[in-house]
């Protein structure tokens, strides 16, 4: 290269050179280089090359996709966050399946959640209580598909939040963030199942989330010992025998600049039928003793629970909270016991001695008459109704 220069902001340039023949090269990053032949003489010491257009030197690439794995856990001060997409759960799984996979989380047989040793007292959806914050209702009825993130933190009491004075009444909550596509409309799910021996199970849920408003209806019915939600009390324990349950619930929450309103109602019916058959033999010096027994328990429980919450902030100095709660519980139980004691092995005389324990089946032709020592039949019936109304103002 003999000599060179750069253009100004308008692309204009000039190069001083002696008379002679030259090749002018014009180049720029991202464009093709252009060449022009020039000749300078004593009679023509300058040449105007006019406007030079440089074609682009670009290669069209295919679509580039960047894939990154979402972090499972994030920690910010006292808040632990979890990305729901980082954990694999079965198709159509409920929140319970996701929580079981969270690091440091455990669920016991009573439905209590502990995360890093702290018991979760409430489940919330986008910062609002879901069915009064009832943990089991959330675990059993919120689908994993609607959850984008989860976070657990210590929520201050209403008094501490309003006054700014720590009263030590914090409670650990699990707060769910709903996916963006699901917080602007209707969504829901329906599950149906049937099996042998007239077994059935069905569950349905419909939700309407829009901006700061939430509305949910859930219902279920089954006779496979599964309970969809607790109905306001601890109902997680596994029940013996055959349990048929029917449940219905509704939840709503909304807020404006000066007011927050929310509430829920839950109806729960359970019919538990337990039959126990027993047979025992006692080895004694005076002779063996044989005992057989039948026991039938039937318990019908009806629960209804409703709660309401209103927080009104008419001005910056006033905050009024109203939280009434009403519950109704009705229990009807029956129990029947039949037992008999024999001085000889009753199976020597009949195939099933338990068929001959009821007084109605004991007659003059009783095949166990000579071996029977005693027989007992008991019947009990219990009815109980409990109603409660609680109101809280602050």
TrEMBL record:
<dbReference type="Pfam" id="PF13715">
    <property type="entry name" value="CarbopepD_reg_2"/>
</dbReference>
<protein>
    <submittedName>
        <fullName>Cna B-type domain protein</fullName>
    </submittedName>
</protein>
<dbReference type="InterPro" id="IPR008969">
    <property type="entry name" value="CarboxyPept-like_regulatory"/>
</dbReference>
């Amino acid at each position: 290269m003999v000599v060179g220069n750069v253009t100004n902001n308008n692309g204009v340039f000039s190069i001083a050179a002696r008379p002679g023949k030259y090749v002018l090269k014009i180049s720029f990053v991202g464009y093709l280089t252009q060449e022009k032949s020039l000749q300078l003489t004593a009679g023509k010491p300058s040449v105007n090359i006019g406007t030079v257009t440089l074609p682009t030197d670009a290669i069209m690439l295919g679509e580039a996709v960047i894939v990154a794995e979402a972090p499972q856990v994030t920690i910010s001060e006292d808040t632990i966050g979890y990305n729901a997409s980082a954990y694999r759960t079965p198709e159509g799984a409920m929140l319970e399946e996701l929580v079981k996979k969270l690091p440091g989380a455990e669920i016991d047989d009573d439905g209590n959640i502990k995360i890093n040793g702290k018991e979760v007292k409430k489940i919330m959806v986008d910062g609002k209580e879901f069915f009064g914050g009832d943990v089991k209702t959330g675990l059993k009825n919120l689908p994993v598909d609607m959850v984008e993130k989860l976070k657990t933190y210590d929520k201050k009491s209403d008094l501490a939040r309003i006054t700014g004075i720590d009263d030590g009444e914090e409670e650990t909550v699990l707060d769910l963030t709903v996916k963006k596509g699901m917080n602007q409309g209707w969504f829901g799910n329906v599950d149906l199942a049937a099996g042998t021996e007239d077994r059935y199970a069905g569950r349905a849920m419909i939700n309407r989330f829009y901006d700061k408003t939430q509305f949910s209806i859930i219902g279920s019915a089954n006779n496979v010992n599964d309970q969809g939600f607790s109905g306001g009390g601890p109902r997680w324990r596994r029940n013996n025998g055959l349990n048929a349950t029917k449940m219905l619930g509704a939840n709503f929450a909304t807020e404006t600049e000066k007011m927050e309103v929310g509430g829920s109602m839950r109806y729960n019916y359970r019919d538990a039928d337990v039959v126990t058959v027993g047979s025992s033999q006692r080895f004694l010096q005076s002779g063996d003793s044989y005992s057989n027994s039948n026991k039938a328990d039937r318990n019908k429980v009806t629960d209804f629970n409703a709660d309401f919450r209103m927080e009104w902030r008419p001005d910056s100095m006033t905050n009024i909270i109203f939280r009434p709660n009403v519950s109704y519980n009705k229990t009807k139980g029956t129990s029947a016991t039949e037992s008999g004691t024999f001085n000889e092995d009753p199976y020597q005389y009949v195939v099933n001695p338990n068929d001959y324990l009821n007084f109605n089946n004991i007659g003059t032709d009783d095949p166990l008459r000579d071996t029977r020592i005693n027989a007992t039949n008991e019947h009990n019936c219990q009815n109980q109704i409990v109603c409660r109304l609680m109101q809280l103002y602050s």
